[in-house]
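Fold it.
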Amino acid sequence: MTLPETDTRPETTDQTSDDRPEMFHYVQKNKIAESAVMGTHVVALCGEVFPVTKSPKPGSPVCPDCKEIFESLPPGGDS
């Protein structure tokens, strides 16, 4: 049995790769470089666990759960 033919077209948008994150998450600043270099996993404020593979650009979509948690945290000091 063969499947019926379907109309398929490649995406016409410019994409750098298929593993582009749907949204970016807030993670501990001191863990970002280690994860990017060593491939270790980080834990986002929302609980998502993943290795850092991309850096966000201005206007990138942000995880709404991470954003809500981050905004509810007290302001941090420089120390």
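Residues 3-16 have pLDDT under 50 and may be disordered.
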